[in-house]
Write a structure and sequence with these properties.
three-stranded antiparallel sheet, alpha/beta, globular, eight-stranded mixed sheet, Rossmann fold, 11 strands
Length: about 270
């Protein structure tokens, strides 16, 4: 049974080997890499939305080197007891976390607005439904998933509530106050704590916080390549003053803190 919804209308998408089609006649071709492009032009905020090819390549190299492995293991430990049958990884990037989640959940859908990220993600595993799509307009049917993960990615709380089954869970990983402190101190005159996301004040009666934790570890980056991969995969590469960014890019090594906030919300069964 399909769980995808047409991004142009609210009808279910029936997927074949090469084409997905709704009853209204909207059709979408599967890319040669195996993903579905479900991001209509009216949902784009630019000609090439999301992370660009260089940022995605840097993040894949950094993550594949295992620097964030403790976080991935912690997330898997949080999600396994939820016994989800269908998980959505919203803002999945190039799929490093998603691949581990597929080992504990039998049916996984993952989306990102960046086509560069999804192209790389789709090469990781063929047993995941990969989508180029917006987290602000999820192309999934109502109450069709058990768990949504949002790992350093934006989300729309109303959309999450729409596609989650009653009693389902929303699992969020966000940067903690000390995350990449040493990198940020090198890039900016003043290091400011993260600003709380707007959705945190919008949970209301729809979601209940069931688990909150902080986890962190030290990452010794022992090469110029790993320093640059971390720099390029973060928004700081674009936000920091150029002279400071160039100085960090010349570092031969850097030890930084990883600090994460983990939140698990349960959708109210009656909502």
């Amino acid at each position: 049974m399909t769980t995808l919804r047409c991004p142009l209308c609210p009808l279910p998408l029936e997927t074949g080997e090469k084409t997905a089609r709704c009853a209204a006649g909207h059709s979408f071709d599967r890319a040669k890499e195996g993903y579905w492009h479900l991001l209509p032009v009216q949902q784009k905020n630019s000609l090439d939305p999301g992370d660009d090819a260089n940022m995605v390549a840097a993040r894949q190299a950094f993550l594949d080197a295992g620097h964030y492995q403790p976080l991935r293991a912690t997330l898997s430990g949080l999600i396994a007891p939820l016994h989800a049958k269908h998980l959505l990884d919203s803002g999945c990037g190039e799929g490093w976390y998603t691949s581990a989640l597929r080992d504990i959940v039998p049916n996984v859908t993952a989306l990102d607005i960046s086509k560069h990220a999804i192209r790389r993600a789709a090469r990781r595993r063929r047993d995941i439904t990969w989508l180029v799509a917006s987290s602000m307009a999820l192309p999934l049917l109502d109450v069709s998933v058990d768990v949504i993960t949002a790992i350093f990615s934006p989300l729309d709380l109303a959309e999450c509530a729409r596609v989650l089954r009653p009693g389902g869970h929303l699992v969020i990983a966000a940067p903690g106050e000390k995350h990449l402190w040493e990198l940020r101190a090198a890039l900016y005159e003043e290091v400011r704590p993260p600003v709380p996301e707007k959705w945190q004040a919008q949970c209301g009666d729809t979601f209940t916080l069931t688990h909150e934790a902080r986890t962190g570890f030290t990452m010794p980056l022992a090469s110029n390549a790993s320093v640059n991969q971390l720099l390029m995969m973060t928004p700081h590469y674009w936000r920091a003053p150029r002279e400071r960014r160039d100085a960090v890019a010349a570092y031969d090594a850097l030890t930084v803190q990883a600090d994460f906030q983990l939140l698990v919300f349960r959708k109210t069964p009656t909502s």
